[in-house]
């Protein structure tokens, strides 16, 4: 195999495919590599951890067809480090040569026949609005669980909702719900559970406003955008019934500038150490934030806000609160509460498509 | 550092505590070699009477070795609940002298008696009185060390212990006071392994640079010691060698972790068998956490393989937990990361990062994880156990034809019996 291309192009190809490469030293050494396949001027690079697979195609100056598996981290580091301009990759036997300007690298390749054979992506395809879908993903992936002992909660639910698509995630401490009205991917009571790690990587490799093609199969799904395909295993099992958790109406409603609250929570959080919560004291005059860490100190901040309801203090894990504030859109948000022990609902004042529900911290 | 001008930190250490308590109930064994511990093939010695120690038996020794050294020894199974009950009364005697008590285990404690001197007399008198009171009321001997620092008083109580000789035990001093100003005279002739924190590995490192006695260590520049045994440990040991120990007696020291572990009669290879043990231990740890009104954010497991290699794995969660099922879920996840194919000799489950703080991140009532219902169930389990005993209710997987086998503290601690209920 031999090809030539711009360094920047190869950097993007290897960097994107490398995102799926497992960082943990797994049982299969070949999974630490990126699979390259050259046919004519078409270069295809694939990285996988068996759950998530990212494939990137690019047009290069091909000289000799072939396949090879390069160690992902090293190849990426080399290509990033060499000066901009032309770069040439040659595979001879079990050695790869990378040359650019006056730099020469040769490295041992990983036997290509050990690389797992990838299943063909499912045939049925639906078009999605890439930009809207990427925004939606950013809103929901954080609330998914990273606790592998609860596999169901490490997934994001994609389900039909009316004539649109709904994305739902929860780690049992908070719940994100995002609607994409008019996006019909699934119908009736169809739903799939997609690993949040796959979606998180997808949101990072999606390019701007590119159209997105979704191919849904029984056990896996593939997202295609431009030159990139992200394939993922689906999680089997039933997502918990989340609907009952979202209250119809709540008696107390706080309306506040999102950026101001976000900045204030970030400041006050400095004194919410060792898993202590930030307390939100809500009354008609406005909002006060308080954090106290025993033997360390305390922080206090007052914020203008309108509040309609009983005077109430609710404590939250500041990280969970910030996650919600960061992904809610618009200048103004509302926080609706029942009491200090019931879930609070965070929404944008001018966009009803996203909801972030979070459980308070009970303080003695 | 609060400098003391009187040796008002006492270390009280019961003499052969477990064995001595057993002898109270079985006076016919008095003077004979008695060993408390696991009598089975894989048991260890928890405590040995002074007569048994004359044969070279000591605690933590494999029981098989002890039996070879002392074939006539009487092995007793041990009764943790009974020791705990006696310990409580002994600690209560200490409590008459000072509220500043830091128990280290059932049979030893530090006492700060600085506030007692005006009422009772100098530390030597207080030490003697405590020792006499424990003997008068419980018929048990203890050894007391008195010094200006904790670690010196512990060394002093060691120096006050009965002597073990080939001809049998000889009474010791009972009370040893290290007078202020004489600390280094007492400390420096001691072998360096007497210092806290000097185990086998550190001892070898120190011997490599020619250190045998505490005096040798004190004579070296601190940098040399740090280069030999590591920075933190080196500085610490060097401080100790100069009799500097700033730690004060901390009464009611907060529990650092709650755990259970068990050595099996035969190595376990099957994940189902190990899971059953996890159920028992998680259930017991949860019960103890709740009865202590504490919860923790870190769950840890300990696995010892047939060849004695031991590993630990832990996981920290965002909110403190005290429920057996939650501990079980996390400990199973941890065990998933361990290859048990080599056979497991010992398994342990513990909860750390404990807090009495009732601050809790609340959880959504998801149907995969009915948090509230579980809390109710835990409360019901606790109240049934409080009324009818620990074996009245437990996880169904622990049910056998003979009833339930919930884990209790001290249960099988020193290795299984010959009959081996754990098969």
Describe it:
- The complex is a heterodimer of chains A (364) and B (423).
- With 364 residues, chain A is an alpha+beta fold.
- Helices cover 18% and strands 43% of the residues of chain A.
- Chain A has six helices and 27 strands.
- Chain A is elongated, with a radius of gyration of 24 Å.
- Chain B has 423 residues and is of the alpha+beta class.
- Chain B folds into three domains: 1-180, Alpha-Beta Plaits; 188-241, DNA polymerase, domain 1 (Orthogonal Bundle); 257-388, Dna Ligase, domain 1.
- Helix content of chain B is 37%, strand content 22%.
- In chain B, the strands form five sheets. In chain B, strands 5-6-1-7-10 form a five-stranded mixed sheet. Chain B has a four-stranded antiparallel sheet with strand order 11-14-12-13, with helices on one face.
- In chain B, a hairpin with a 7-residue loop joins β2 and β3 (45-48).
- In chain B, α4 (80-95) crosses α6 (123-138).
- The longest helix of chain B has 21 residues, at 271-291.
- Residues 418-423 of chain B have low confidence and may be disordered.
- β27 (361-362) of chain A pairs antiparallel with β15 (360-361) of chain B.
Q: Give me the secondary-structure category of chain A.
A: alpha+beta
Helix percent band of chain B: 25-40%
CATH class of the largest domain in chain B: Alpha Beta
Radius of gyration of chain A: 24 Å
Number of domains of chain B: 3
Give average pLDDT of chain A, whole number. 92
CATH architecture of the largest domain in chain B: 2-Layer Sandwich
Short structural description:
With 364 residues, chain A is an alpha+beta fold. Chain A contains 6 helices and 27 strands. Chain A starts with a strand and ends with a strand.
């Amino acid at each position: 195999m031999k090809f030539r291309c711009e360094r920047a192009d190869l950097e993007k190809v290897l960097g994107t495919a490398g995102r799926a490469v497992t960082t943990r030293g797994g049982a299969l050494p070949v999974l630490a590599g990126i699979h390259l396949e050259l046919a004519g001027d078409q270069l295809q690079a694939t990285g996988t951890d068996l759950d998530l697979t990212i494939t990137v195609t690019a047009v290069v100056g091909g000289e000799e067809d072939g396949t090879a598996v390069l160690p992902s981290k090293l190849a990426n580091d080399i290509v990033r480090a060499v000066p901009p301009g032309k770069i040439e990759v040659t595979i001879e036997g079990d050695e790869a040569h990378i040359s650019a300007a006056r730099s020469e690298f040769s490295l041992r390749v990983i036997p290509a026949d050990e690389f797992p054979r990838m299943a063909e992506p499912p045939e049925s395809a639906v078009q999605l609005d890439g930009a809207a879908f990427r925004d939606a993903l950013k809103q929901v992936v954080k609330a998914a669980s990273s606790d592998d002992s609860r596999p169901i909660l490490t997934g994001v639910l994609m389900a039909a909702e009316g004539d649109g698509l709904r994305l739902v995630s929860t780690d049992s401490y908070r719940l994100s719900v995002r609607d994409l009205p008019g996006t019909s991917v699934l119908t009736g009571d169809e739903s799939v559970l997609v690993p949040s790690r796959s979606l998180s990587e997808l949101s990072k490799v999606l390019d701007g406003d590119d159209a997105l093609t979704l191919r849904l199969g029984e056990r896996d799904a593939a997202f295609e955008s431009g030159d990139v395909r992200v394939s993922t295993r689906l999680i089997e099992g039933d997502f918990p019934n989340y609907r009952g958790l979202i209250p119809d109406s709540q008696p107390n409603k706080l309306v506040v500038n999102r950026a101001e609250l976000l900045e204030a929570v970030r400041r006050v959080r400095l004194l919410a150490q060792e898993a202590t919560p930030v307390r939100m004291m809500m009354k008609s005059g406005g909002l006060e934030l308080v954090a106290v860490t025993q033997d360390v100190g305390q922080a206090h901040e007052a914020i203008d806000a309108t509040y309609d309801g009983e005077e109430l203090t609710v404590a939250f894990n500041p990280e969970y609160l910030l996650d919600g504030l960061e992904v809610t859109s618009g200048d103004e948000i509302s926080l609706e509460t029942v009491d200090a022990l019931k879930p609070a609902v965070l929404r944008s004042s001018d966009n009803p498509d996203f909801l972030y529900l979070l459980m308070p911290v009970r303080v003695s | 550092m609060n400098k003391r001008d009187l040796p008002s930190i006492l270390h009280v250490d019961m003499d052969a505590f477990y064995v001595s308590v057993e002898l109270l109930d079985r006076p016919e064994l008095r003077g004979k070699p008695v060993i408390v511990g696991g009598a089975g093939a894989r048991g260890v010695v928890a405590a040995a009477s002074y007569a048994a120690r004359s044969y070279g038996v000591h605690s933590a020794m494999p029981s098989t070795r002890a039996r070879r050294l002392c074939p006539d020894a009487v092995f007793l199974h041990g009764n943790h609940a009974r020791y705990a009950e006696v310990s409580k009364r002994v600690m209560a005697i200490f409590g008459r002298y000072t509220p500043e008590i830091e128990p280290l285990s059932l049979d030893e404690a530090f006492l700060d008696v600085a506030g007692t001197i005006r009422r009772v007399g100098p530390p030597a008198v207080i030490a003697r009185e405590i020792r006499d009171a424990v003997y008068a009321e419980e018929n048990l001997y203890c050894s007391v060390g008195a010094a200006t620092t904790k670690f010196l008083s512990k060394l002093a109580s060691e120096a006050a212990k009965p002597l073990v000789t080939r001809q049998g035990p000889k009474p010791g001093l009972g009370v040893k006071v290290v007078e202020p100003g004489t600390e280094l005279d007492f400390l420096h002739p001691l072998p360096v392994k007497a210092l806290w924190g000097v185990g086998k590995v550190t001892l070898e490192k120190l011997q490599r640079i020619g250190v045998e006695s505490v005096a040798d260590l004190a004579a070296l520049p601190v940098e040399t010691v740090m280069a030999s045994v590591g920075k933190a440990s080196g500085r610490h040991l060097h401080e100790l060698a100069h009799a500097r120990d700033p730690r004060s007696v901390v009464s009611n020291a907060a529990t650092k972790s709650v755990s259970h572990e068990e050595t099996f009669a035969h190595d376990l290879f099957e994940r189902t068998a190990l899971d059953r043990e996890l159920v028992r231990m998680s259930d017991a740890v949860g019960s103890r956490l709740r009865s202590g009104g504490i919860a923790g954010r870190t769950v840890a497991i300990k696995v010892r393989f047939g060849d004695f290699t031991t590993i630990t794995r832990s996981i920290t969660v965002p909110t403190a937990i005290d429920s057996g099922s939650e501990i079980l879920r996390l400990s199973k996840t941890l065990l998933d990361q361990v290859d048990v194919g080599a056979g497991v000799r010992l398994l342990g489950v513990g909860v750390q990062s404990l807090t009495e703080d009732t601050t809790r991140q609340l959880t959504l009532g998801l149907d995969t994880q009915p948090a509230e219902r579980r809390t109710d169930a835990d409360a019901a389990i606790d109240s049934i156990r409080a009324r009818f005993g620990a074996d009245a209710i437990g996880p169904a997987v622990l049910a056998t034809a003979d009833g339930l086998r919930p884990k209790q503290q001290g249960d099988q601690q020193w290795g299984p019996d010959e009959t081996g209920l754990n098969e």
